[in-house]
Amino acid sequence: MSLPSRQAISAARQRFFETGASPRGLVGETILASWRRCRAIGLAPEQRVHAEPPGQPSLRELRERNEALLRLCRPELDLLYADARTSDSIVILATPDSTILEANGSTGFLDKAARVALRPGVSWREDLIGTNAIGTALHEGRAVEVHGGEHYFGDHRVLSCSASPILDGRGRPIGLLDISSASSVHHAHALGIVQLAIEQIERRLLEREAAGRDVIRLHHDAALLDTSREGILVFEDERLVAANRQAIQMLGLDWSELGRRRYHDLFESARPPSHLVIPLRGRDGEAFHARRQSGEHARIGSSAALPSHQPATTPGSMVFFSGAQDAQLIRGTRLLDADIPVLLQGETGTGKEVWARELHRRSRRAGRAFVAINCAALPEGLIEAELFGYQSGAFTGARRNGAPGLLREADGGVLFLDEIGDMPLTLQSRLLRVLQEREVHPLGSSRPVKVDFAIIAATLRPLEADVAAGRFRADLYYRIAQSCIALPPLRERDDCRALIVWLWQHLGADTQGITLAPETLEQLSDYAWPGNIRQLSGTLKTLVTLAERNKAVLPGDLPDFLRQPSHASFADHCSRPQEVPRLHAVARDTMQAALDACQGNVSEAARRLGISRSTLYRRLERKDDRPVQALRRRAPPAPA
């Protein structure tokens, strides 16, 4: 998040405090709303803040009352304190009423902060201290940055603060974490560091609430299950009793609905069987991938790291390549060995990472690292630090000895850039420079470091269209797209039946005497599978789990979505072999046809297509640069 300049803040203060005019556009809406609240209760911006330091008995009592909060946050606090000491900043833990419980970090800055009452035992409630990150974040119930003159009181203009509440599984604040520094040396990554630490704290807290209860973990992308991006729902019997922020946002819920909503208020699909990743459909038609953990096994654990450093193959992994695909792999491996980048293009669930790992396994770099980076899932405030590494003290929260970064960790091996189409434009230019010069500039260092790795990129987006629309750099596109491999969706493959049989065998169904009736196999083969191999694999796992030993799976045993007729639009495209449409054009036209058939009802269209609303919005917004809202207005209103 970019901060307003010192000049803009100065102009905003002059308008607001001296002339009474609105400074809209000069400061953020959060800051402006806080200023208005402070003025409404009679706080004067020029008044001095006098907060006597509490005595040791009071501080000791404060710590005793909040011992549980201190214990919960201790791992993250100790790590942040150690790094803050080298970056001229301090880390603050506050109670839910905005009282500073603990502050530690740079000794020099601790003294400066104490002069303006930023010290343990002092309340920084907004109605007492004016606009400030601690009090305003707790008032707003979300992350807030307050920089320099954005503070209400003039005495606090020396501070730059980034804070966010710590929430329990019912959305109630149990505390707050803040990183503060001098306004002259604002750390751009401070808020990202705070939010990462809080994600870990809240995850441990939710694990306690989940003990002995049913837990459903979900995400639109199955690859993001078991990461900090997944949604977590905790049920007691059928009632939703706790959740994390991500789940609340994904399902469009309000915290007040916890305790009142039941499972079938949220989902059309039956409750998933334990431990299997299967498709799950929300009441509004939105599609998720989900895993359920029940009873004593409902442990959330720490979040998995976003980057992957796993070996190219995993024992027992399911990989199926046809003869034509094997020929593509041979070609791709030769290109990779010649250090020519390979771009994998295909819809979600077509197995892009499986292909990337197989290319690495067959290449001359097979014995070296395979580093996978999901460009869409890296924390926005930390992308550069994660990719390029950093020196000690480069920013608040940086490790004492720095970090090499993922690009240097891939040295000698293969770097897999998944969802590269979602990489921010500002970062694309830096990546291009790395690919051209084969060297990395870590944050905080002026000395480049040489790197050597092969590149595999992957995307489900039409990058050519994104280049034309200015959403993706043309020079980076031509650098990574020197060789493209299109992974067809399952509905366009002629080996779907063979794949189903192969997957069924590798799931161990044959050893249990579980077979697929011929008509069941026919129905599975004829389905369009909008979620592709990922959806097919999850569905087959579910069928094996629910089937009885030594019996055949009949069509009546199939999930409801498999009993719907396949979409005619796919058949229409396939009936004209002489006209080979672009992959994204087929998907786009199908989505538009579904939207028109549903009279502009996005939820219903997404349900019929078997995709999420967000996917439908994103793909249609890129049709002709008109927002999907305009497309919806074009459709006739639904009957009352």
Question: Can you offer a commentary on this structure?
Answer:
- This protein has 640 residues and is of the alpha/beta class.
- A hairpin with a 5-residue loop joins strand 1 and strand 2 (100-105).
- The protein has five domains: 46-204, Beta-Lactamase (2-Layer Sandwich); 213-297, no CATH class; 323-486, P-loop containing nucleotide triphosphate hydrolases (Rossmann fold); 490-563, Helicase, Ruva Protein, domain 3 (Orthogonal Bundle), CATH 1.10.8.60; 568-634, Orthogonal Bundle (Arc Repressor Mutant, subunit A).
- The protein has a five-stranded antiparallel sheet, with helices on both faces. It has a five-stranded antiparallel sheet with strand order 8-7-6-10-9. It has a five-stranded parallel sheet with strand order 12-13-16-11-17.
- It has 25 helices and 19 strands.
- The two termini are 43 Å apart.
Give the tags:
single chain; 640 residues; Beta-Lactamase; Rossmann fold; 5 domains; 5-stranded antiparallel β-sheet; 25 helices; globular
What's the layout of helices and strands?
Elements: H1 6-19, H2 29-40, H3 56-65, H4 67-84, E1 89-94, E2 100-105, H5 107-115, H6 126-129, H7 133-140, E3 144-147, E4 159-167, E5 173-182, H8 190-210, E6 214-219, E7 231-236, E8 239-243, H9 245-250, H10 263-266, E9 278-281, E10 287-293, H11 323-337, E11 342-345, H12 352-362, E12 370-374, H13 383-388, H14 406-409, E13 414-418, H15 425-437, E14 439-440, E15 449-450, E16 454-459, H16 463-468, H17 474-480, E17 483-486, H18 496-506, E18 515-516, H19 518-526, H20 532-546, E19 552-553, H21 568-574, H22 583-597, H23 602-609, H24 613-621, H25 628-634
Parallel strand pairs: 11-16, 11-17, 12-13, 13-16, 18-19
Antiparallel strand pairs: 1-2, 1-5, 3-4, 4-5, 6-7, 6-10, 7-8, 9-10, 14-15
Helix pairs in contact: 4-8, 11-12, 18-19, 22-23, 23-24
